[in-house]
Amino acid sequence: MRRLLQFLILSALVTSTLSAQLFQARVVTSAYAWQRQDTVGRSSDHLFGHTSLSLSLTGGDLSFHAYGNGFTDLSGPVAEESKYRLYNLYLKWSNIFDVANVSVGRQLVFAGVGNGTIDGGLASLKFLDSRLKVVGYYGALPPPGSKAEMIGDKSNNRMAGAQVVAEPLEAARVSVSYMNRTIQAEPYSAYRRDSLFNPYLVEIKPMASSERYLSGDVNVDYEDLVSGYARYDYDFDTEKMARAQFFTRVKVMESLGLTGEYLQREPRISYNSIFSVFTFNTLKEYEVGAEYALMTSWQLFGKYGSVDYGDGESSDRVTLGVSGKYVSVSLARNVGYAGELSAASAQVSYPLMEARLTPSLLLSYAKYKLSESASKLEDALSAAIGVAFRPVPALGLDTQVQWIQNTIYQSDVRFFVRGSFLVSERLNIF
Predict the structure, then answer these.
(1) For 296, which DSSP code?
(2) For residue 106, with 0-12 CB atoms within 10 Å meaning exposed, 13-18 middle and 19 or more buried, which class applies?
(3) Is the pLDDT of residue 10 over 80?
(4) Taking Cα atoms as reference points, which of 334, 265, 296 lies closest to residue 113?
(5) pLDDT averaged over every residue in the chain
(6) 112: left (phi over 0), alpha (psi -120 to 50) or beta
(7) CB-CB contact of 153 with 143 (8 Å)
(8) What CA–CA distance (Å, rounded) separates 384 from 410?
(9) Which of 31, 90, 140, 278 is the most exposed place for a label (fewest CB within 10 A)?
(10) pTM (predicted TM-score)
(11) Count of alpha carbons within 13 Å of 290, Cβ hemisphere only?
(12) What is the mean pLDDT of residues 144-159?
């Protein structure tokens, strides 16, 4: 991986000699501290630290991108070793003959039903003034923990797929996509007994799990009057539907909009996984809602939804609220198989000093029980006070104090702080 990084950076620099290079780097460092009550009369302090770094170097049609983060347990009863994750590390060549884009390295894939991270390549072609686009990708899956190395068994840990996107009309987009992914779990050791019930150690090598999906979706948006989205996923391994979804929003008048959504999906379980032999039900969910605009900066909204878990079990929910430019308030009520919940929440934020300083306040209260058979309702109360400070566009500082009270913690206080810094420079290395 180190040699690959050196090669990609060198390639980006050498091939960007015809134009100045734009270098951008963003560093975000945060810390999260709290005190936990381990047992009666005994508590422990915790402090976690996170740092993320994103880099990009662009020159002409060539660009280099990298993104990763690190985690450190700074204080705690069981100190953990530092962990590092590499999410992106790739070189991209855009506008090849004004038709193609190609990227190589570790990168995120968003191509219809195919999504995830690969160590490989992705190419896209555009035709008919970009009204037709074809995307293809192939690569190995990253190792567990997104380590900065290639996975060992690449043949059984891979993802490949393609997507075709067409815009037959200005207000409509149609997409068809396919994804094939295999995942090989790591071998492990376990004790088994022989015919005389004597234990002996054996190595277990699970089979590589398989996922093969075909998906189609349609997106329509007509003059801010009607918008809709429909999607259908088919599972080749189980030979049945995996997901069906439909959403629409209709503007019946200038200030009133109606929404409706239906979702039906099967559990996302690999075909040759041990979990596929268990009995499971299809999940069906629908929701209808209304949005009403009050003046220019206020909006009322209401939603009703229901989830059918199968075997006659279901849950219903109702949400009502009002939102403005600086304030939002909502009420929620859930009843049924998933438990019972009555909740209220409010959020207030107001920018000061020409939006360089923004204080915020969040409050929420809930009464709930986790099942219909629970004997009584429990209470939960939480509050958060925060400040966001942006003295200059390149620098950001955020702090927040969080307080929680529920049946487990009588008084839980947590502190969060984050700082971000952006460097953007036009370079002339060559």
Answers:
(1) T
(2) buried
(3) no
(4) 265
(5) 88
(6) left
(7) no
(8) 16
(9) 278
(10) 0.84
(11) 9
(12) 90
Strand-pair partners of 201: 191
Residue pointed to by tokens 């963003």: 26
How many whole angstroms separate alpha carbon 415 and alpha carbon 387? 12
Q: Rounded CA gap, 87 and 21, in Å?
A: 23
Q: Which two tokens stand for residue 365?
A: 């209260």
Query: Based on C-alpha coordinates, what's the Rg of the chain?
Result: 26
In whole angstroms, give the CA distance from residue 149 to residue 152: 9
Q: Token pair of 185, please?
A: 């779990």
Nearest-angstrom CA–CA distance, 313 and 91: 50
Q: What is the pLDDT of residues 166-177, one digit of tens each?
A: 999 989 999 999
In sequence order, the 6+-apart residues with CB closer than 8 A to the CB of 345 are: 329, 330, 332, 362, 363, 364, 365
SS (H, E, C) 85-141: EEEEEEEEEEEECCCEEEEEEEEEEEECCEEEEEEEEEEEEEECCCCEEEEEEEEEC
Are 346 and 374 in contact by the 8 Å Cβ rule? The answer is no
Rounded Cα–Cα distance for residues 164 and 174 (Å): 8
Comparing 326 with 280, the larger pLDDT belongs to 326
Kindly report the CA angle at 249 between 243 and 255, in degrees rounded to 5?
A: 160
Rounded Cα gap, residues 176 and 219, in angstroms: 12
Q: In whole angstroms, what is the distance from residue 29 CA to residue 421 CA?
A: 9
Among 160, 170, 153, 162, residue whose Cα is nearest residue 134: 162
Q: Exposure of 289 by Cβ count < 10 A (0-12 exposed, 13-18 middle, 19+ buried)?
A: middle
Query: What is the per-residue pLDDT for 267?
Result: 80
Q: DSSP letter at 282?
A: -
State how far the Cα of 165 lies from the Cα of 182, in Å rounded to an integer: 25
Q: Please classify residue 161 by burial: count the beta carbons closer than 10 Å to its beta carbon, then call 0-12 exposed, 13-18 middle and 19+ buried.
A: buried
Q: Which amino acid would we find at residue 109? A: V
Q: How far apart are CA 369 and CA 335, in angstroms?
A: 10
Q: Which helix (H) or strand (E) holds 8?
A: helix 2-14
Find, among 364, 323, 309, 374, the residue nearest to 342 by Cα: 364
Question: End-to-end distance of the chain based on CA atoms, in angstroms?
Answer: 26
Q: Is 177 exposed, middle or buried (0-12, 13-18, 19+ CB in 10 A)?
A: buried
Longest dimension (CA), the chain: 81
Q: Are 228 and 241 in contact (CB under 8 A)?
A: no
Backbone angles phi, psi at 12, to 5 degrees: -65, -40
d(CA 256, CA 399): 38
